[in-house]
Specification:
Arc Repressor Mutant, subunit A, nine-stranded mixed sheet, about 375 residues, alpha/beta, 14 helices, 3 domains, Rossmann fold, about 40% helix, three-stranded antiparallel sheet
């Protein structure tokens, strides 16, 4: 805190942030106008119309005990180290809680978002992107959810880039629980953000609210895969509203996981994401001296085996494909189709996934 009496001011800030009777936009305006949360409290108590508002000061004091014990930093919108991009959105949170060691005031920050039920291609897109921008002093923001968020955080760590998760609950827990180790790993170079105090559960309506922070913290949001509804579409819409750059990977026109991305591109809410060089050029960010061009999967030729050629082309179009769907499409004996699939898998052309699905293997 930058205020002279920091602990006392923080008590009023936490209590003010938890008031339900004033929306976030008005809270921000009032706090900036009066200069401190204690001044806001004194103003309310002196006002006949506002003196009845209950300020949860006891809860705020307990929260200070919690954040002190767990080395959590409470950053006020009045502080000089408040995230410099987030402060410009109208409903920026008065307080944001941060745990971690990373410097989040980096020259470049992007968010990577998408569906929980992603395809194999998502791994390749995210790896290719992060590998192609690792030369920059850049950080990766996402939401720690299963799926695209998890891939983004893990890939950033693999390439030794700082990554932050914005949570939809307090810092006394990690949700989903299976990402607890990932969250701990992120603390070394990045960290965790939330606007919620401890004992705040991950309720469904917290996550759309959380998404405005994901969008507001960054210069650009990249949507990898998503349907037309969900948190990723909310984040993309907010980023567009905040005049940030939005990109969407196009995917296949008949794939539900690409419908949201295609909708964003169609409605001019997002530019098409093609590859890291295209992204860097669009953002007018420095391009590496020797950019690495990832080899795309080349069409595989099976001149002596037209059935295998047909199978690989079919999987190319529909990947990932249920094995039952392959049996329906190809009028082959089950044993013969199984043998063809095994040969393609051994050749490194396809990959068997959970749920008896087959997809092209990405190098």
């Amino acid at each position: 805190m930058d205020t002279h009496n920091s602990i006392n001011e923080l008590i009023y800030l936490i209590a003010f942030s938890k008031l339900k009777s004033i929306n976030e936009i008005d809270k921000k305006k009032i706090l900036i106008q009066l200069g401190s949360a204690q001044h806001v409290f004194e103003y309310c108590k002196a006002s006949q119309a506002l003196h009845h508002i209950y300020w949860p000061l006891d809860i705020a004091k307990r929260e200070i005990d919690f954040i002190t014990k767990h080395a959590i930093k409470a950053i006020s919108i009045l502080d000089k180290d408040y995230p410099n991009r987030l402060i410009h959105i109208d409903d920026a949170p008065l307080l944001i809680y941060h745990k971690g060691k990373g410097n989040f005031q980096l020259p470049y920050l992007i968010s990577i978002v998408g569906t929980r039920a992603h395809t194999l291609q998502a791994f390749a897109i995210i790896k290719d992107l992060i590998e192609g921008i690792q030369h920059l002093p850049i950080g990766i923001i996402s939401g720690l959810a299963i799926g695209i968020d998890t891939i983004a955080h893990k890939t950033a760590i693999d390439f030794k880039l700082p990554t932050w998760a914005v949570l939809g609950h307090g810092l006394d827990m990690i949700y989903p629980t299976q990402n607890r180790k990932l969250a701990i790993d992120m603390l070394e170079k990045g960290g965790l953000f939330t606007e919620f105090t401890s004992k705040t559960s991950p309720l469904h309506f917290h996550f759309p609210k959380r998404n405005r922070i994901v969008a507001g913290l960054t210069d650009a949001t990249i949507v990898v895969e998503t349907d037309t509804k969900g948190g990723s579409m909310i984040t993309a819409g907010l980023a567009f509203k905040f005049n940030r750059e939005v990109f969407a990977a196009p995917g296949k026109i008949n794939d539900p996981k690409s419908r949201g991305c295609l909708s964003l591109i169609k409605n001019n809410l997002a530019s098409m994401y093609h590859d890291p060089i295209h992204f860097l050029e669009a953002m007018q960010w420095p391009i590496p001296e020797k950019p690495k061009i990832r080899k795309q999967n080349q069409p595989m030729s099976f001149d002596g085996d037209p059935i295998s050629q047909q199978i690989i082309e079919f999987i190319d179009i529909h990947s990932p494909v249920q094995e039952a769907y392959l049996h329906e499409h190809f009028t082959l004996e089950p044993a013969l189709l199984a043998a063809k699939l095994l040969d393609l898998e051994l050749d490194g052309a396809i990959e068997r996934q959970a749920g008896n699905q087959y997809a092209r293997k990405i190098d």
